[in-house]
Design goal:
alpha+beta, 4-stranded antiparallel β-sheet, 4 helices, Cyclic Phosphodiesterase, Chain: A, 202 residues, 37% strand, 5-stranded antiparallel β-sheet
């Protein structure tokens, strides 16, 4: 078949959040919006927020079964709990591009993510060459300026002070891992679960 005619879908592997956690995240987003009222910011819809373990990109439909099989070991992993405990920016406060919620260091999620990388690398999906940092993307910052006279001005020192005073502490039970299809629409990204690996849970 001509490669140009191969049907592909945009996919990633992630841990979903409960409805209650998504409400908590939405509250955090709402409290931060006024600080970025002059900046060009794309806020992630709270219902779409997730913990990405592996972004696969555009994948041929014929590879989906291989991905599911390669990651089937996940079913043997015990369920665990994560702790969401902070807010920050990538790559940093001076030139922020991403606003995120962070997690406490967790051996279970690091192990599972590493095993997924290794399993997928063995079937042709190149492993990431940078360390995994567990986080939830709350917003993507398109344009921002530290000059008060600029249209996209944001007082990042004030934002940092606000973040330091804003306690973020939420527990995130992990009971399954999902293979998700992403489709861009006029309303933004729309997600469909293609497969769910349920972890062992007593």
């Amino acid at each position: 078949m001509n490669p140009a005619h191969i049907q592909t879908i945009r996919t990633f592997i992630a841990v979903d959040l409960s409805a209650n956690l998504k409400k908590e995240i939405a509250f955090i987003q709402q409290s931060l919006r006024p600080h970025f009222s002059r900046a060009k910011v794309s806020w992630v819809r709270s219902e779409n927020i997730h913990l990405t373990l592996k972004f696969l990109g555009d994948v041929p439909l014929t590879d989906i079964t291989k991905i599911i099989t390669a990651c089937d070991f996940v079913k043997e992993e015990p369920a665990f709990e994560l702790h969401i405990n902070g807010l920050g920016f990538f790559p940093g406060l001076r030139k922020p591009k991403v606003l995120w919620c962070g997690y406490e260091s967790s051996a279970p999620i690091a192990r599972v993510q590493n095993q997924i990388e290794t399993a997928l690398d063995s079937i042709g999906f190149t492993a990431e060459n940078k360390p995994f940092v567990a986080h939830l993307t709350l917003a993507r910052i398109k344009e921002i300026n530290s000059n008060p006279a600029a249209p996209c001005y944001v007082d990042m020192a004030a934002v940092q002070e606000y973040l330091m005073k804003m306690p973020v502490s939420m527990f995130h039970p992990v009971r399954s891992i999902k293979l998700i299809k992403s489709r861009l629409s006029p309303k933004g990204s729309e997600y469909t679960v293609l497969h769910e690996w349920k972890l062992k849970f007593d």
